[in-house]
Design goal:
CATH superfamily of the largest domain: HAD superfamily/HAD-like
Helix content: 40-55%
Strand content: 15-25%
Order of helices and strands: HEEEHHHHHHEHEHHEHE
Number of domains: 2
Structural class: alpha/beta
Number of strands: 7
CATH class of the largest domain: Alpha Beta
Number of helices: 11
Strand order of the largest sheet: 1-2-7-6-3-4-5
CATH topology of the largest domain: Rossmann fold
């Protein structure tokens, strides 16, 4: 979503158009049978504002060095499906990763080796995130169009921590609200999450666009009445039964 794309979404009546994603490196596809009347934006944090794959790629390299041969997509799909939901609701990330590596067949010694080296590297990646090129310009253009923007994310971090990271990225003043699953008590695709985000914009859902990359989150936004806009779209690799997998955080 660069500045030119903002103009097209807010102004142009298009049946289908594909353009540069936020930062210019990823691709957006959006479809509409009528003019896209987007008056507000709810967007994901990781993967939309910045590249969130550096840590995962590093971890996969370390696992390969100790003999765990796997592929990026299937490996992290299982982690995101079975372990990250609890992390997004307050569980310690390293406890969840430990259990995941146990289930992956690693020995205690191998797990200690990976996590000891990984904790410092993880902090480096997380503390040095930079927005994609073009992000600031795109957000400025949205502000020129008087389009309010909120962040809605499934995250291990609280709102205060996310705002601190936005400040590090130099874009902390571009959002009317930041919402995290950790504080909400539920996670996308729960409808409650989208309703909470839309409420902060003070707009009806049908004029709000949701900007994200995960198929389940995009589907949830559509069900909540928002217009879904996909960035670096990640289709589900196999069916997920959301009717049996709770999206609420444990109390």
């Amino acid at each position: 979503m660069n500045a030119d794309w903002v103009n097209s979404v807010c102004v142009e009546p298009l049946a289908r158009r594909t353009g540069n994603a936020l930062g210019g490196e990823r691709q957006i596809t959006y479809r509409s049978a009528k003019r896209l009347a987007i008056a507000g934006i709810v967007m994901e944090f990781a993967g939309v504002l910045y590249d969130d794959t550096a840590w995962q790629r590093w971890l996969l390299q370390q696992l390969a060095k100790i003999g765990l041969q796997t592929q990026y997509g299937p490996f992290f799909y299982v982690f995101e499906r079975d372990y990250l939901p609890a992390v997004h609701c307050g569980r310690n990330y390293w406890d969840a990763l430990h259990d995941f590596l146990v289930a992956s067949g690693l020995t205690p010694g191998q797990i200690d080796e990976v996590t000891t080296a990984g904790q410092s590297r993880y902090c480096q990646f997380e503390e040095n995130v930079r927005p994609f090129p073009g992000v600031a310009a795109a957000l400025n253009k949205l502000a020129q169009h008087h389009v309010p923007v909120a962040i809605l994310t499934n995250s291990a971090y609280s709102v205060d921590e996310l705002q601190r990271r936005l400040q590090t990225m130099g874009i902390e003043n571009r959002f009317v609200a930041v919402l995290s699953s950790r504080d909400l008590g539920c996670r996308k695709p729960d409808r409650t999450c989208y309703e909470a985000a839309v409420k902060t914009l003070r707009l009806p859902a049908h004029v709000v666009g949701y900007l994200g990359m995960k198929q389940c989150a995009l589907r949830g936004a559509t069900k909540a009445g928002l217009t879904s806009i996909a960035i670096n779209f990640e289709p589900e690799r196999k069916p997920i039964s959301w009717s049996t997998a709770s999206t609420n955080c444990p109390t």
